[in-house]
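Field reference: "sequence" (input) and "structure" (output). Example, DUF742 domain-containing protein:
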Amino acid sequence: MSDQVNDMVNDMEWIDEEAGPVVRPYAMTGGRTIPSSTAFDLMSMVVATGATPSPRAHLSSEHRRLLGLVGRARPIVEVASDAGLPLGVVKVLLGDLLDHGLILVRQPIPAATSPAQSLLLEVINGIRAL
């Protein structure tokens, strides 16, 4: 195939609006099922760095689509839902983007712990004193 035809094939979308994916998810990841980073869990926050991809990155249309979805920090599970792709596939593709320095991954902020009982008693006593 000529380079021009290869470029056209690489830029084609792999999803048909009505039929859904026309390529198996494992084909999008080159058969890989494990992300290159262990930084990903369901609630990890991902955001694009804004860096320009290097020509050696060879980003697929799915990689570019995910980059468009993470313009602001979002949980991975939400990105997968909006992309309409299985979570495992999204983790592998995000791992590629992380390897190229195109996204940042942050762990979610832990839920606030309940205040100590002594603090609550001080608040109650303070209210009673009013």
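The first strand starts at residue 15 and ends at 16.
Residues 1-12 have pLDDT under 50 and may be disordered.
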